[in-house]
Amino acid sequence: MSLTFLARKVGWALLTLWFILSVNFFLFRIMPGDPVALLARSQRLSPEALARQRELFGLDQPIPQQYLTYLSETLTGNLGVSILSGREVMSMVADRMWPTILLVGLGTLIAAVVGVMLGMRAGWRRGSGIDNGSLYGSLLLYATPEGWLGMMLLILFAGALGWFPAGGYSSAESGGGVGDVTSHLALPVLTLALGYVGQFFIVMRASMIDVKSQDYIRLARAKGLADPVVRRRHAAPNAILPTITLVVLSFGFVLGGAIVIETVFSWPGLGLLTYQAIQTLDYPVLQAVFLLSSGAVIVANLIADIAYGLLDPRVEQI
Amino acid sequence: MSRGWNAYRRNRRGLIGLIVLIAFGVIAVLSPLLVPPDSLDPSSATGTPNSPPTAGYPLGTDSFGRSVLSLLIVGTRVSLTVGLAATAAAVFIGATFGLLSGYYGGTAIDRVLGALIDWFLVIPWLVLAIVMAAILGPTLLNVIIVIAVTSWALTARVVRAQTLSVRELPFVERARALGARDTTILTRHVVPSVFPVIFAQAVLTVAIAILSETTLSILGLGDPTSVSWGRTIEEAFSGGAMANGYWWWIVPPGLAVVCVTLAFTLCGYALEEVLDPRLRD
Hints:
Structural class of chain A: mainly alpha
Shape of chain A: flat
Mean pLDDT of chain B: 86
Number of strands of chain A: 0
Largest interface: A-B, 52 and 43 residues
Distance between the termini of chain A: 12 Å
Shape of chain B: elongated
Strand content of chain A: under 5%
Helix content of chain B: over 70%
Radius of gyration of chain B: 22 Å
Largest sheet of chain A: none
Low-confidence stretches of chain A: none
Distance between the termini of chain B: 23 Å
Structural class of chain B: mainly alpha
Strand content of chain B: under 5%
Oligomer: heterodimer
Number of helices of chain B: 11
Order of helices and strands of chain B: HHHHHHHHHHH
């Protein structure tokens, strides 16, 4: 892997990060009304209190000064103070991070495994029952809003059948052990996995179809190898490259992807934190979420680029 | 044009999608006749609240006593309007950026526009949408703006790729050799060639726009005064439909979203297959 390739990718990531920081800053200042006016809308404050808030948030300083302050504070981990709770946003985010990582990590993993296995078989045998069935299934899932899907699963499995609890992280009686959390985790993870499985399936299927027409596959068959062996040992490892990229990129959407599901299932992660911040117009929290989720996507893109460069030597020229 | 239609006609999935869309379109257009506007006023509803489907109320009632079927019919018009308006804006912006970026590919213009497109693709759409919606306020127009801002980049990327390849075609080279100005080449040669791709992208974008509006409404960021399907789902959710099992209130609007989104997606894919026979399965 050449140093210029690496340097260029990292440089691009840093540039994008700076762009996101700037967008974050200006978004809350060019919108109608400044941040304190947002505050004034949701809580009633006296003019002196408003002026004090202005000072606190540094809004009485000239914009370029605010911008530099914002950059230096953010890069040192100071993400401000929540309007609603008065706590430091950084510590609020740290508290809620693990449940979201658990949910999205597990869900993406399951979706990737199932998607790859189905896509592998579907691409290998185009037009077969498994191919058509999976294609239509993916299409149907794509058209389904994930929030509503979660609600349907809740009604069916928690409401009607009573197999799983109806939301939250753990029950008071059961005390929050692994089994308890798992049963609370099951439906949200299922919803998330159903939402993602389609794209993994389609990508794996497409690259499998591509690979199948390659010469080395014909050679393997001519050697007399059995069909499953050809598929598993020769086709799949090559076909899986784009899927790996997709998996890494999907982890980048860790924060943005869980908002609706966490809201529906009352799962105490960053998504639910975002939803609560919407209700109260807690803009420091919203700013932090915007920054973190975009940052995660940038980092994931960078890792995916580097990984692809490592795995596929042909990529260096890009 | 008719050749395209003949090719499209042979695509069964595309036809099913088209028929479904026409059906929903008719409902949307006729909705003021089918449902008198004041029957949606929560304070004047006449049905018993939260009752399951009966002869008079084929889909039951919500917690205000309004007919869920009426909500669904009015929701058709709202959801389709938002979806189409947001798509029009998104595709207009995206196609413009994509055309300019692709036509001037490799130059400074492309570097800047292309970077802008890539950057917008990096931002998770829902987070940007939430931030914008929270600041702009919950009106229908704002929802349309928010969806347009978060969806234009996808169209831009596809259009850019297509423009890059159209640019290399012989008739474009010939026009340039004859001394035609850039604007002439763009409007008379490039755009007509790229237009079918733009159109297919637009159809697919409507599906995304409708899903986005539904998600935003479920999160409570939609317009509280308009009755989109997403809004009905949100009202059902917070109105205890799940705890109390009011399935007639919460299931139909979601099914409606699935049907329409599926229809647009099928049509979009069919259009893509018609345009590029290599894609046919």
